[in-house]
Model the fold of this input.
Amino acid sequence: MTSVFSARGVSVSFGGVRALTGVDLDIEPGQLVGLIGPNGAGKTTFIDAVTGFVRYQGDVRLGGASLNGLPPHARARRGLARTWQTVELFDDLSVRENLTVAARGGGAAPVDGELRLLGLEAVADAMPWELSQAERKRAGIGRALVARPRLLCLDEPAAGLDTRQSRELGRLLPGIASSGTAVLLVDHDMGLVLSSCDWVVVLDSGSVIAQGPPAQVRGDERVIAAYLGHAAAGAA
Done:
């Protein structure tokens, strides 16, 4: 199957610090891919790079077409969407209106569809300050989805959620992928990633150290060592 997204040799440096080194990643249509790793591994930097917010070396393609050199808004128009760790909704607009302003030409139909998909129908006419944190997170995802992207990059969507809310989010994510939008999920909640994704890529110190189905990655000695090593360093 032809990849909807392909990254080859993506490297990012901040001054003399190498944040990413030669990262390769492929995502197929309808696939839900998790990108995990200990703190400082380069996960958010990778999303920032491929969506055009950070300068990088390497090759990034969407649907076979190069995105290199394009600014973020041009990548979004080509079908590459993202969310942010902090959800910023328009406080003077309802949930439905927040999604509607982000929709491209499809009007009410895609908005209603995303509200159903994300379980937001009951709060569609609520204002942002009336939402729970979990509902705000899902509204932010919905605002990205109504543009009908080919790939959606989710940056820490479970941040600030409790265990139950994170599990509920995990049950929704496969539906997004199966509806036609491939998903790249970055999150510190390994339970969320390993239970919802069908392929997992692991970064450590800016490089890919393992990838494969969740069950394989879970038992990979390099992955275990990377997480335990960072945990020990933090404790010290």
About this structure: The chain is about 40% helix and 25% strand. Residues 120 and 152 are 19 Å apart (CA to CA).
